[in-house]
Amino acid sequence: MNALAQAAGVVPVAVWRRVQSLAINPLVVLACVLLGGMTGWTWPALGQRLAIVGTVYVNLLTMVVLPFMMSAVVLSLQTLYREGGTGKIAQRVVLVFVLLALAAAVLATAGTLVLHPGENLSDATRLELGQIVGGDANQTNTAMALHQPEAAPAAASAQDIVRRLVPSNVFAALAEGETLKVLVFALLFGVSVGQVPERIAGGLQQALQSVYEACQTLTRWINLPLPLVVVCMTAGQVAHTGVAAMAAMAGYVLGFLFVSALVICLAVLLLRQRAGGELKPVLKAMREPFALGVATNNSAACMPAMVEALAGRLGFARARVELLVPLCTALLRAGPVVYFVSGTMFIAALYGRILGPGELVLLAAVAALTGFASSGMGGVATVALMGTVCAYLSLPFEAAFVLFVAVDPLCAMARTAVSVLVGCAAVSLICARPLSL
């Protein structure tokens, strides 16, 4: 991008860098979220028309994800096989993923216990929640009609998980955007390419390197209009769901945001400890991944920014980072883990159910496992999977489903940001420490 600006001679490089820095500044992104929310609330018709901008933007980012992931994983595995030590990395991956998923679940449990959302609700709030569950503000059956097909979310069985992992046709998986299946193929293909002599695989390596660099450049270009896109996306979401549902669920949403902030702080502290430097460079490096997570609600779309932050800014080994970032994005779903814990505890409080210590331990363990099972899911599918966690504690989920759907656009921002930051922390724990920040 900078080379293009210099060649054109129209905009100085410093101006491009300033624009890019402002576009990914978290304060700018959060301000745009508020502006978009006010726009969607004040002018809902305009907000619905602006929603198309967000849809196109996310599609553009998602378009880059699969070729980027394929090239990054295959290139990284080639490098690792030449250097050796892949078995040791695999052991650390499993250990770190399990420990961080459990840590996120425990933090979410503790934070939700402190805030206890769902308890001591006013009669007016309970009435509003009842109207959302039973019908819309005009006492119609619209909400129930939309809710009916999702009345009984099925538990994710082992066969379902395996089926989502192994692609029968990699080209179909690429066409349908099934990230997890493409990742499995990339891992298997990368391992096999690592067995090919370097003199033969050199041409493929150069081609993949070109794809990788092109995807990173394209991502930087797409991120330039991020503030405008955030305004349009938020306006469309608020115009679609309205503010009544968010107001009634404000206690839960604020509690979930608080717990998400706790987990993000833990991730940042881990990154600072592993990077071996001051906190400010770590925060600066994480700005772009965080901003993209909040803006796009798509952790896969944040992978190029995560790689650049960890390898380019914090100095972790690029070959390891390029391999581990796709793995963390697909498998370490810390955001949904936190969401499952806080949502289940909210439902328990809403129905007057007091969870004992044993039930809280069971909740944390089940939520961590269900987070791994949520790989490849997003949006309403993630909300529905909360029913699996509730079933282990014999809690009713079907009636509360529509409540969570109503506020999911806001919760999805925090879920994605948590997954992205915890994923970066996981990569830093698995990789060797950088020599210097």
Can you walk through the features of this model?
It is a single chain. With 437 residues, the chain is mainly α. It has a single domain, classed as Orthogonal Bundle (Proton glutamate symport protein), CATH 1.10.3860.10. It is built from 22 helices and no strands. Helix 5 (86-115) runs parallel beside helix 19 (334-350). It starts with a helix and ends in a 7-residue tail after the last helix.
Supply the key terms.
437 residues; mainly alpha; Proton glutamate symport protein; disordered N terminus
Number of strands: 0
Number of domains: 1
CATH architecture classification name: Orthogonal Bundle
What is the CATH homology-level superfamily? Answer: Sodium:dicarboxylate symporter
CATH topology: Proton glutamate symport protein
Category by helix and strand content? mainly alpha
Reading the helices and strands in chain order gives HHHHHHHHHHHHHHHHHHHHHH
Strand content: under 5%
Helix content: over 70%
Largest sheet: none
> What number is the mean pLDDT?
75
Radius of gyration: 22 Å
Stretches where pLDDT falls below 50 for ≥5 residues? 1-10, 135-156
Assigned CATH class: Mainly Alpha
